[in-house]
Write a structure and sequence with these properties.
With about 220 residues, this protein is mainly alpha-helical. The protein is built from four helices and two strands, in the order βαβααα. Bound molecules: zinc ion.
């Protein structure tokens, strides 16, 4: 850690970006205070160099400052607000990203095949079922392998159920598709029928007209 940055992991305060009113303080010089700081900062700093490291004022309570905003001699950093989350994020994300990225390159079937292949190599722990309680938990004395095996079994069960749902959904979609096609062809048939009926009506009307004409002629002839 440099003299320019706060030594607390996850804290981004430095002499370059510190907001107004925030200061960077050097470490104490007495052994007594250094011990207190060491205790307070263990797991909080990647490196603590007594002569170079600085800690910013955000890690000290209000009571640690005098009226001039100077740090009192007996002050110990105690405030480490949100950095825990930031730290965890920093530690885990790179690896998680790598594995996630690699996995996302596999197709679903490749992934399933890979899992099945790996599962063949894994053996069920001895007396597995004896270590599982009625509410599907592991007994306290179950080995890690047994606990993991139970988790794998649960995941597998869930996968199978999801797969079933997928298959059912596919079937539903097929039925819907078929119904839609039928409806479409029915509509086509109806349309065609309507055209046919229209034609028939037209023909009948023409015939009727001819008949009326003939009747008229006949009536005219009769009345003579
Ligand atoms: Zn800081």
């Amino acid at each position: 850690m440099s003299q320019n940055h706060c030594a607390v992991q996850g804290c981004r305060i430095s002499i370059f970006n510190k907001p107004f009113g925030v200061s960077l303080f050097p470490c104490p010089t007495s052994n007594e205070m250094r011990n207190k700081w060491l205790h307070a900062l263990r797991n909080r700093c990647a490196l603590l160099d007594w002569s170079r490291s600085r800690v910013c004022s955000k890690h000290f309570e209000h009571k640690c400052f005098d009226s001039q905003k100077r740090l009192k001699d007996n002050s110990v950093p105690t405030l480490f607000p949100v950095y825990k989350r930031v730290l965890r994020h920093h530690n885990i994300t790179p690896d998680k990203n790598k594995v996630d990225k690699l996995m996302s390159k596999l197709t679903q079937s490749e992934l399933i095949a890979d899992i099945k292949n790996s599962m063949k190599k894994v053996k069920e722990p001895v007396n597995f079922e004896n270590f599982v309680t009625e509410d599907l938990k592991c007994r306290p004395d179950a080995s890690i392998e047994t606990q993991l095996w139970l988790l794998i079994k649960k995941q597998d069960n869930l996968n199978n159920r999801l797969l079933e749902h997928v298959v059912q959904n596919k079937k539903h979609i097929e039925v819907l598709q078929k119904n839609m096609d039928e409806t479409k062809s029915t509509k086509k048939d109806v349309d065609q029928n309507v055209e046919t009926y229209k034609y028939i009506i037209k023909c009948l009307q023409e015939k009727l007209a001819t008949l009326e004409e003939q009747i008229e002629i006949l009536t005219a002839v009769e009345s003579r």
